[in-house]
Amino acid sequence: xxQEMLINVRQPEECRIAIVEDGVLEELxxxxxxxxxxxxxxYKGVVVNLEPSIQAAFVDFGVGRNGxxxxxxxxxxxxxxxxxxxxxxxxxxxxxxxxxxxNRQRAGSRPRVKPPIQDILRRGDxxxxxxxxxxxxxxxxxxxxxxxxxxxxxxxxxxxxxxGVSRKIEDEDDRRRLRDIMLELNPPRGLGFIVRxxxxxxxxxxxxxxxxxxxxxxxxxxxxxxxxxxxVDIYEESDMLIRTIRDIFTTEVDTILIDEPAAxxxxxxxxxxVMPRYVSRLKLYEGRExxxxxxxxxxxxxxxxxxxxxxxxxxxxxIDQTEALxxxxxxxxxxxxxxxxxxxxYQLNIxxxxxxxxxxxxxxxxxxxxxxxxxxxxxxxxxGVERALRDAVxxxxxxxxxxxxxxxxxxEMTRQRVRPSxxxxxxxxCPHCGGSGVVKSCESMAIEVVRQLTVASQRPDIAxxxxxxxxxxxxxxSNKKRRQLIELEDEGKLxxxxxxxxxxxxxxxxxxCRDAADREVRLEA
Length: 525
Hints:
The chain is α+β, with helices and mostly antiparallel strands. The chain has 4 domains: 3-36 and 241-298, eRF1 domain 2 (Nucleotidyltransferase, domain 5), CATH 3.30.420; 42-235, CATH 2.40.50.140; 307-426, no CATH class; 442-521, Ribonuclease E, catalytic domain (Hypothetical Protein Ychn, Chain: A), CATH 3.40.1260.20. Helices cover 30% and strands 25% of the residues. It has 13 helices and 25 strands. It has helices spanning 117-120, 172-185, 204-227, 240-248, 261-274, 291-294, 297-304, 341-363, 379-392, 422-426, 442-457, 471-480, 482-492, and strands at 3-8, 14-21, 24-32, 42-51, 56-60, 67-70, 126-133, 142-144, 149-150, 154-157, 163-165, 192-195, 232-235, 255-258, 282-284, 308-310, 316-321, 325-331, 367-372, 400-402, 410-415, 464-470, 495-501, 509-514, 520-521. Strands 4, 5, 6, 7, 8 and 13 form a 6-stranded antiparallel β-sheet that branches. A 6-stranded mixed β-sheet has the order 16-17-18-19-21-20, covered by helices on one side. Strand 16 and strand 17 (316-321) form a beta hairpin. The longest helix has 24 residues, at 204-227. The relative contact order is 0.09.
């Protein structure tokens, strides 16, 4: 299997990174330079408000929007009397032992009962926070005091106070070897380190280099924490180019192609620093044809935003994204496996499960997802589809959880939401339909206009009414509602003018009422 990483940064406004396997787009990352990306950044913030009812604090961290800090994201060392100095991580019990592979940020020892947030923080308190989720819509960014700083093979977690190994490294011998190496490297007491999945086959020299880099970085961060008053920026995550190579590149990637010389040089410097043996895999693309166009990715990226996704052998999936959840429906179409309806449903669902996992990864869909597969009677077929979906999401770097098939044949799942989906980042709501995808018909608008005129005709002080609507609505009123308009004019002893406006929303409606002296008369809402 040939795997390539294609990096398109020729347009300064946007960086696009694609992972292509045997010509098939498997992963896509897009970042606009005009959009501020705060995820991973560390700030010294100031508590500006406490909400005991939801056990949360709002923190000013210096970017113009307050962040949301829930009590579940406050590490236990803040609970102790006198507060917590994040620049002086505290040795925790068992800090020199491995943690059995627990790699969650909250893996440190913690009190069984947390005090209420109003007993932990006060307005004006300074807290060291990291952005863990971008603000979506009107919601501000989500913050955490569980700091984690990723390297290539390790993650520095000051609050952890011990060494551990990623749960995704399942081989027990490898886990034991990595834990022993970390103990031999003797990291400073009070700091925690987790071996990332990318470090599973690394040797002591490579892990030592990454450890030294993270320790140098942490010293710089500690100095900034001590000398700066909040709100202030303490540490900024690398740009997407370096971040993606650091987090996504594996030994399975045969080639990294970059289409811009300056970006190529930056990537080359980074690889020489952290992965010198793989520098030869980095190539500068110098072709005249745009990189993504050459690999036929532009067309596929455009299809990512479509509602309906055809499956290779027939059938399709339909993806509807709402504010709270994503609904995915599997349609059989003309797909037929054999003469058995059960086998046809099973084979189609297996294909759909793989494509669903790929689509949610490419579109970066998050939150609750409900998958409506074709109904199957046999229990073994239901379990088979569940396994296929679980296997397909294993390569997803976002955390996912998949439930068993419900009595209604639905498979519910959740996927970590870090930033708005690709669709919400690339598109704005239609100013005409407000994002609903539908507008009122000419007939509906005409009926509404007549209702408004009926109300106005009862007012003795109104002598003239001007109606401004879309051109096709005006045509409908002038033709099919002419008789009703004349009756309303006679009944109310007033004059009605219908004005059709081009290039306005189908639901545009402006009613201007005047008395005999041409003074404006307002209709009651």
